[in-house]
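>> received
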Amino acid sequence: ELSLGSRGGHPAGPPHPAGGGGSAKSSATVSRNLNRFSTFVKSGGEAFVLGEASGFVKDGDKLCVVLGPRGPEWQENPYPFQCSIEDPTKQTKFKGMKSYIAYKLVPSHTGQQVHRRYKHFDWLYGRLAEKFPVISVPHLPEKQATGRFEEDFISKRRKGLAWWMDHMCSHPVLAQCDAFQHFLTCPSTDEKAWKQGKRKAEKDEMVGANFFLTISVPTGPGASLDLQEVESQVDGFKAFTKKMDESALQLNHTANEFARKQVTGFKKEYQKVGHSFKCLSQAFELDQQAFSAGLNQAIAFTAEAYDAIGDLFADQPRQDLDPVMDLLALYQGHLANFPDIIHVQKGALTKVKESKRHVEEGKMELQKAEGIQERCNIISFATLAEINHFHKIRVRDFKSQMQHFLQQQILFFQKVTQKLEEALHKYDSV
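>> returned
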């Protein structure tokens, strides 16, 4: 088994003289990144590429990247499952001194319900974000300290957690990870088992540089990646995420504005029209002629129809715009993760270019440079697999969300039309 130098830091590997050290030989090593805070260093990507990660990879820890029709992909989860999040309930401890919200989780592969608090989700997110440097772990919906138990907030957070859970279960690597499985299956009442699993996850040695040791990639002819090709694919994806982030932000802003107008403005305007029709019918009622009674009733009914349409407008965003904004929030979290993932990959490519230059200058043995290239290849395979997964899930999510949005819009206008038709028929018998 391997020993880690520092928590989540570089594992103890062969000593590595820094560039410019004592002898002429050591000055030839690929230079280290002196910025300790760079993602490439923090993620362990640098230590791995330089061949400093050493550890024993158990079969259960192995992650496979395979070549699919669109290039590298994570090997699919052979036992796919889903997990519902239901019934947020208020619970108390310390004899009612402290209250919190617990969510009921029912994973389809066990069928056994467990209850988890937001802080459990938060713990899991922290573990996974540290363990998987080139996987986009979905962000959790925000933790709100004040007014935590307002109905609206709780229901909104449950929807956010449901999206989060869907993305966790849909990811071939995250779904099968031990910490996530412990979170889904450990009985809520067994505090001891929960703590044991938690400690085990926190002691996991396959994090940082060692995480990359667990990745196995396609080998053999035609399986190595062309570095320039990888670079252009990653650059293309970087441009894509930037554009998607801008447009998601803009759509979110527009949807928010539109929802606000419907809840306040449109409702008020339609009800103003309704009120004006009502005033007209009241004026007409002053005429006591029997033959005008039908007209007065029809106009009064029209007034009520406009009043009701105003309410329909106010209720509508909950059906169509809010779900779109929930989805955008989740994707904004993913988009915020990708700059770091891309940075790790770019750092690896830089090391390969440096090592090639050193070989040409006679400062490094070819074998060492080949090792660096091979390890960079692993990071490239994993990064491209993650990019591929992101696009696959994105197409799935936006397709279903846009269908839902348009179906709800159609239903809404059908309801409005129905109100107007009912009002129109009231004039038939006048």
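>> The chain has a mean pLDDT of 88.
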